[in-house]
DNA sequence: GTTCCCCGCGCG
DNA sequence: AAAGCGCGCGGGGAAC
């Protein structure tokens, strides 16, 4: 394969050829000599093989991810050429981890580039890069879009690095939690003892020795037969009722969830040599949030947090942002009252102290209602008060909702736009507005419009929060990469060649990061996390008084909240 | 026998 | 307690 060096205007400066085996060494040399921004087809395809060889790059431009932003962004006016190149519009997940070691027939496929992936040959890579450069240079507000492009690309590197380093995971502690909750690990195919016991209690209370507790339709019929009149078997419906079967059933459901989602089978499949290596999917959510694929990385139950444990002589530094989304909304809208309510403290308490609501819980429900479009219950009662006290913030989300109800497109702070609607949606709306439209048709169209409005209302805030989080992690990653290496004697070998001797990101969850660091670097890592949060705030909202306070802890074990 | 959808629930 | 947004996953069971 060939590497080409380009100048700032896209002109060719230099090029070099190498075989696949020589690639990491050549990349390492160019990285050291030029510190370039690597333009490549897809970090998810290139980065893992470099990391495995002990090579890390500082910056990249991920053509696949950037393409998906630019082709939809309302800030890009001249996108015909980009949209025509639709092989680049690929949502492809990273390759499946090889689960079946016996599948030798497919070994070749597992190590070669992914079938159906974006092009990776030099000419098409250069052509797409040129299209993206053109689109960016002609965009409205190119500076913001360039921040987004850089942040999204940094995210692609971080996702690959998080997977390579892994989360230090204490199998013994995980087993202890499972055993305490479920009973000792049972033989394969048999349920654990405490589930068996809870199941027996439910069946006795229902006076029905054969109820299949794992089949919602059958369980629902059995509940009805016992006189428990619930519309579904969900826990919050069950909690409304008094019956001796309810308590053991809820207990059974909790245990069943833990066992099937994160039980011993999960442990065997996903934790190896003390590391859980989740598959992150940057840009996997329409709003720009990350998704995950396999292992449920973004749904690790809080109950299992104690199983995250630093290697000997290392620490975990976990930090989450307090009320990220409302703060992002306050900053975007420049709502001075809302910014002031959160300044240096808990935003919800600030709303109470400003005399807008009585309790922190009310403040939280009201703010979530504002972000999600809640109209009923407590949230519906509090939102109007927020609308009076935070007019700019509420105007921003109300405006986004109104745009969505009309079928319009909304755009995040840095330029990611909501996906286009199906033509059938607009047709249904038009049809419902004809004089002869049936009442049911009109009601369905109104409901669908309101749903779209709630989606676009939330999109601008959730999407901008995702941009803030990417900027935070990108700044943090570069700072951590400058830390000194610690001696081989305290290396965390399981973190792999790039990360075993230096503080590194180990976990990310929307508004939370965990860094795994040698004990002597823990304080410095904590400082870096705080500085990166401040930097992200200034980068996205220069001149704004908004702050992003962190809840940060240094420990050997990740504490349960 | 395989594929797809729904339910329910974990996370933010 | 959920509600109002965004996800992934396992299990059951219908559809193919």
Automatic annotation (TrEMBL):
<dbReference type="GO" id="GO:0003887">
    <property type="term" value="F:DNA-directed DNA polymerase activity"/>
</dbReference>
<dbReference type="GO" id="GO:0004527">
    <property type="term" value="F:exonuclease activity"/>
</dbReference>
<dbReference type="GO" id="GO:0006261">
    <property type="term" value="P:DNA-templated DNA replication"/>
</dbReference>
<dbReference type="InterPro" id="IPR043502">
    <property type="entry name" value="DNA/RNA_pol_sf"/>
</dbReference>
<keyword id="KW-0378">Hydrolase</keyword>
<dbReference type="InterPro" id="IPR001098">
    <property type="entry name" value="DNA-dir_DNA_pol_A_palm_dom"/>
</dbReference>
<keyword id="KW-0235">DNA replication</keyword>
<protein>
    <recommendedName>
        <fullName>DNA-directed DNA polymerase</fullName>
        <ecNumber>2.7.7.7</ecNumber>
    </recommendedName>
</protein>
<dbReference type="InterPro" id="IPR002298">
    <property type="entry name" value="DNA_polymerase_A"/>
</dbReference>
<feature type="domain" description="DNA-directed DNA polymerase family A palm">
    <location>
        <begin position="301"/>
        <end position="521"/>
    </location>
</feature>
<dbReference type="Pfam" id="PF00476">
    <property type="entry name" value="DNA_pol_A"/>
</dbReference>
<dbReference type="GO" id="GO:0006302">
    <property type="term" value="P:double-strand break repair"/>
</dbReference>
<keyword id="KW-0540">Nuclease</keyword>
<keyword id="KW-0269">Exonuclease</keyword>
<dbReference type="GO" id="GO:0003677">
    <property type="term" value="F:DNA binding"/>
</dbReference>
